[in-house]
Design a protein that fits this description.
L-arginine/glycine Amidinotransferase, Chain A, three-stranded mixed sheet, 6 helices, globular, binds citrulline
Length: 255
């Protein structure tokens, strides 16, 4: 079980109101988003992480979703090539920062695209959702890079959600929380599944950090199910980020 020591975050820019969205929940409010982001950082600190904060990037409305810029593994960092054209370039400052923490830094190259919201780490194996943002070429480059450093990867077909981790999260101890199509994937058949009800679908995106689960606030049934398998839960309200199809995992890079 990988214990984390650090998280990288990037506060929302004022331009967050122009972020990409399919959720019909209205535009996020900048000040509320900033406050929610601060609470999220406090939750990461409460789990024992040192939080590294990149400056907000006003030119890139979706830049607070820093998870999508890189995959961090024990032995290397892999810089993503984002599938959303408006988000390409978000990875530049992240790469610079990671130089101080990783000896090996690799990159996904065109025509490959990978957004690490599509990558779920289970021990030394990485499940890669083939979404509208992560293509075959990107996934295969990623698997080769993972294998070069002693890890492995496999792809998961998907059609219902933005990213793989929009609908499924690994909570260690062979436990997945999942909703929608991810409840029925053969790839996940041998896990203990916590099924998230459709009316609480956003709760399928949560993060295990050193024995605690940070989960989105407002989803009482799901939080009770996670607590029932023995995890303390820290609820954090991320309503403004949900308006942009983003969740808790997207807001940090943990390593
Ligand atoms: C986007 O569409 O790219 C952003 N509005 C949301 C990204 C969410 N990231 C994630 O699930 N890892």
């Amino acid at each position: 079980m990988k214990m984390f020591t650090h998280a990288i975050v990037r506060p929302p820019p004022k331009t967050i109101i122009d972020g990409i969205t399919n959720a019909k929940l209205g535009k996020p409010d900048y000040k509320t988003a900033l406050r929610q982001h601060q609470n999220y950082v406090e939750a990461l600190r409460a789990c024992g992480l040192t939080v590294i904060t990149l400056p907000a990037a006003e030119g890139v409305p979706d830049s607070c979703f820093v998870e999508d810029t890189a995959l961090l593994t024990r032995r290397c960092a892999i810089i993503a090539r984002l599938g959303a054209p408006s988000r390409q370039g978000e990875e530049v400052e992240v790469r610079e920062l990671l130089r101080g923490y990783f000896n090996h830094i690799e990159s996904i190259e065109a025509p490959g695209t990978v957004e690490p919201g599509d990558i779920m780490m289970v021990g030394n194996h990485f499940y890669i959702g083939l979404s509208d943002r992560t293509n075959d070429a990107g996934a295969h480059q990623l698997i080769s890079l993972l294998e070069k450093y002693g890890s492995s990867g496999s792809t998961v077909e998907m059609s219902e959600m933005l990213h793989l981790k929009t609908g499924v999260s690994y909570l260690e101890n062979n436990t997945l929380v999942a909703c929608g199509e991810f409840l029925f994937k053969p790839a996940f058949a041998n896990f203990d599944l916590i099924a998230i009800d459709p009316d609480e679908a956003s709760a399928a995106n949560c993060v295990w950090v050193n024995g605690t689960v940070i989960a989105p606030a407002g989803f009482a049934k799901s939080i009770a199910k996670i607590e029932a398998v023995g995890y303390p839960v820290i609820p954090v309200d991320v309503s403004e980020f949900q308006k942009l199809d983003g969740g808790l995992s997207c807001l940090s890079l943990r390593f």
